[in-house]
Write a structure and sequence with these properties.
Elements: E1 3-7, H1 11-23, E2 27-31, H2 34-44, E3 48-52, H3 60-69, E4 77-82, H4 90-95, E5 100-103, H5 108-126, H6 134-145, H7 155-198, E6 242-243, E7 246-247
Parallel strand pairs: 1-2, 1-3, 3-4, 4-5
Antiparallel strand pairs: 6-7
């Protein structure tokens, strides 16, 4: 049965195209960008390529041009696809020698009518005159791929290969990360409960004692006169023999009192 390579960055277009073609018996491989498509050409070995003309990076026009210029893929038929609101460049379509065009969203009758004759023509062109059948050529392909070859390092192709690998492992990575997060959360619940049980109860909050307000003065009896307190200030008497009120003269000696002796330093 013919193989179809569907290149489209829309997951909805991939699902619709794969469902319609698989139900008709075609083997369908879907990729989300042109770089991934170029890498998968060797192992998919398609008969028909459905390539979207509006994609990030390389477009379906570039995929078609590459296939038509590659001697190993001259038998591959290319159908360029575009959305309802996305115009198809007729001049560029002729320049890259596309075998057909198709509008999205895919309708089963229109998609099968476009793919079936091109897939049959590709099967005929694939079989060399007087050579083995197409099935034998495909069966021998893995043995040829096992031979050593010289790889050409291309940054874009390496990036595309990494993208393909991530796309394939994204679901398992998400499941593994979610499992680890749930395990960590569940292991912390007993620890939090044990820490809460071991912690001493916090003392009850007591409102700060506020100072009691002073009692208001007792009211005076009617007719009583209010007495104001008067403070007297005595003036400082400064003697002539003093400094700042300190007596500097020697006190007078009284009769019968012993005379004070002052030692000279």
């Amino acid at each position: 049965m013919s193989r179809i390579l569907l290149v489209d960055d829309s997951p909805h277009a991939q699902r619709m195209g794969e469902r319609i073609l698989s139900e008709e018996g075609y083997e369908v491989v879907t990729v989300s960008n042109a770089d991934s498509a170029l890498i998968r050409l060797a192992d998919v070995d398609p008969d028909v390529v459905l390539a979207d003309t509006v994609m990030p990076g390389r477009t379906g026009y570039e995929i078609c041009q590459y296939l038509k210029m590659s001697p190993a893929h001259r038998h591959v038929r290319v159908i360029l696809t575009a959305g309802v609101l996305e115009p198809l460049d007729e001049e560029q379509t002729r320049r890259v020698e596309a075998d057909g065009t198709l509008k999205k969203p895919f309708e089963a009758s229109a998609l099968l009518a476009a793919v079936k004759p091109l897939a049959e023509a590709a099967e005929k062109d694939r079989t060399p005159r007087g050579g083995p059948a197409a099935g034998a050529v495909r069966a021998a392909a893995p043995a040829q791929a096992a031979a050593p070859f010289l790889a050409v390092v291309d940054a874009e192709q390496v990036r595309a290969a990494v993208t393909v690998a991530l796309d394939a492992s994204m679901a398992s990575m998400v499941d593994e990360i979610a499992r680890r997060v749930l395990t960590a959360l569940q292991s912390r619940k007993p620890e939090a409960a044990a820490a809460g049980a071991a912690a001493p109860p916090s003392p009850p909050l007591v409102a700060a004692e506020l100072p009691k307000p002073a009692a208001p003065p007792a009211p005076l009896p009617a007719g009583a006169a209010r007495v104001e307190t008067v403070r007297r200030v005595n003036p400082l008497r400064v003697r002539t023999g003093s400094i700042l009120g300190i007596e500097l003269s020697r006190p007078e000696r009284t009769e019968g009192a012993p005379e004070e002796k002052h030692d000279s330093q």
